[in-house]
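Hi team,

Filling in the usual template for the complex we talked about on Friday. All components are listed, including any nucleic acid strands or ligand strings, so the model treats them as one assembly.

SUBMITTER: L.P.
PURPOSE: interface mapping
COMPONENTS: two
RESIDUES: 893
SEQUENCES:
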Amino acid sequence: MPGIALGIWHDGQQSLHAHGLANLETGYPMREDTILQIGSISKIFTTTLLMMLVDEGLIALDDPVSKHLPGFRLTKDGTQNDVKIVNLVNHTSGVYGDHFEDFGWGDDALERYVESMSELRQVYEPGTLWSYTNSAFNLAGRIIELKLGTTFEQAMKERVFEPLGMSRTFYFPHEAIAYPVSVGHTLVDPAGDEHEVARRWPIPRASGPAGSISSTVGDMLKFARFHMGDGTWEGRRLLSEESIKLMQEVHVEHTGMADAWGLGWMINFYDGEKVIGHGGATNGFNAHLDIVPARDFALVILTNSDRGAAAYREIIDWVLEDRLGLKKQAAPVVPLEAEQLAEYAGDYSELLVDITISVEGDGLRLDSIRKGALADTDEERKQPPVHLEPLGNDRFRVTNGATAGSIVDFFRHADGSIRFVRVGGRVIGRIPPAQAGN
Amino acid sequence: MSFSNALRDRVTDAMARWAVPGVTVGTLSTERVETWAFGVVALDTQFPVRTDTLFQIGSISKPFTATLLMTLVERGELGLDEPVTTYVPDLILADPEAPDKITTRHLLTHQAGFWGDWFADFGLGDTAIERFVAQYGRLPQTFEPGTHWAYNNCGYILAGLIAARITGKTFEQALYDLVIRPLGLEHTVLSAAEAIAYPVAVGHTVDPHTGEARIARSFLRPRARNAAGGVLASIDDVLRFAELHLRPDGSVLSPQAVARMRESQVDTFEAGASWGLGFKIEQYEGGTVVGHGGATNGFRALLQMVPEQEFAVAILTNGDNGSQLAGEIADWILAERLGIRPVEHPTVPLDSAELERLTGVYTQPYGRIEIRSQAGELEGRQTTFSPYSEVEGEVTGKWFRLRTIGDGRAIVEDGELQGNQIKFWDAEDGGIRFLQAGGRLYFPDAWPFTMGDEA
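RESULT (copied from the run log):
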């Protein structure tokens, strides 16, 4: 991994650390004030701004999205009256999520993106399952634009970045470029160690609410401390205490990427202590923010590598144990019979990935082929296969590779047959065996 | 002392004198391409400049735009002497007759006559250039099309729109497809969003009070300006572009088209200087120099080519005083390598009545120049108040001495503008029509035009 920047807030003390390089090509070192992409941690910012609108009575979490987007059609199924605003920020809308279509750099990018959401699939019935949904946050961003009458980025700057003194936190490359800023690095070969500079740096503007903030570890600790507080910052109220707390409460329990989900936040329990956070993964950058409000503790890790997640998972667990004595208890393996395992075998497919599940020893084997979008090239990219160990209740855990420890869930039709697999937090439909044979 | 060592000494000395943090220098000759990197990409990081570092090249983008338009001429899709309304029939200018009189040749040679320093921000979207040009009815027509030369950014932006309309692509995509990619320029981009993933320099302005460089946090942004100044490139790529114009292989432009671009089309206000299609042409002692400079917020750049000797020198800097450095170094390299030098202009003294006639205040929308007569010598002082500068409010420079060289011209003898020429143009009534400096027209007393309302 080329470089990492790390910030810790604990009991009123801040420490910032920088290691390695900001750019493999130039050899420029990582600095404590280097700007890196935070990816989907941006979703917590979007949720924060959305909650400000809730505080002001401009929207309500239970409003259908159609209430704030007259004439808007959501998905091919027309689910705009069924999807509530709360579903957008806790990943339960069921709207196809990995929609990153580029509508350019104009101020109308988000508006045009949201118009294109009428072409998306409704993967499952709104509110019934949890599946990581980028597109829903962009829709939330558009609602913010309409309610505040300004661009989404400008609203965030005025209402969050500037009040919190986050002076090196930006949405646009032309803002970040005049500061120390890191490039992203991707793996030349997913199975190897060699990295190369990712020449496509920006996220399309229309996906800004889902993930295009760049920031420093110092600025991110300010944001983290704000969320460990009462909604005020330096004596000024930005958000109600109720909204701060509501964001951190468990709203969805059975999620594939954490023990539970709040509003925006993911929630994990370490020895019963609530650790809330979020990760981010963009082209060549991986990042994670974790806060433990009960202990006045925050940890932010920003990396400039496509597999920075493998490193930050180790670091988070080590730091939480070292500093707070918190340990994540791994769920025990629950052995399954061969015929039970065979139920899960089959082909699953979504726009961005094809997955094949087969029985392998006491568990399952998962093969996946990534198909374009956020990958550096449009070529289909075959990922190294991983092994899954059974945890019971249709849940499995990856045992090897860069995603080791992550959860894979299966969901069933009413008749008991397998309907979906959830990998990497995404609910992916099974191709019925009759079709798969064609 | 080797050339490289002598160059290092001179550049290092000039960087200190002019408060320029980082510089790349490149030369192209019949034998080889050589590049050098000096200083730092940013004062805060102190990270070293590399020979592949991207800089904003500012108005050196204009020769790129002109090259793009010439590719369309060669394809038979554009007529240089057709009125621009052939390609942009919806063009509205303040003078309703002007659109049918102005040609693409006028745009590329700065003879369109509408005021050309309007830079309003229409954002980053694909439609920015269309929306920008749709406002040209605001720009006063400062002279009849084709009758004068005055540096015109807005003219180049209109030229960029013509390329977009003809190709059916964005201006940027057309430039990539027809010039940048065919030339194999892999370190040439048109936005911060692209440049950020490359080694790239940060601009620096000079504090007018302390003379010290400081980081310009405002990087180039408004996309509508790209055809006038939006290119970012490495020194190697600027030299590769120069090579197209020195040794055309027919891949982008024919040798005939390249030759046409550096033919003098119109005299400028400077003695011995004229303009071709996109390039400035200067007579030096011993040869003709064809080139262009560039200036954006915090960046200055210069490209100078000597076609007779198939030689080019390019200098990219990340400091607002980089023009002075680039001028010094380029002239030194041209003298050292080719033995050619700027023409010395002998003094032509003026009598006191004539000196008195020239004194006064001359104004353009972003500045004014005061001219006074002191003990038989002419002096000048410039005040700028650009809305696009990082320096807020009016900034008034020091009085500089002017040495008159005849034909209404004078040369600045000291200060930051040292070496620049200005010219007083006579009115038919015996007064002064305007003073031209930095390519811009300064009118006696107040600027006699008003900006129209936004459409």
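MY TAKE: The two ends of chain A are 42 Å apart (CA to CA). Chain A has a mean pLDDT of 95.

Thanks, L.
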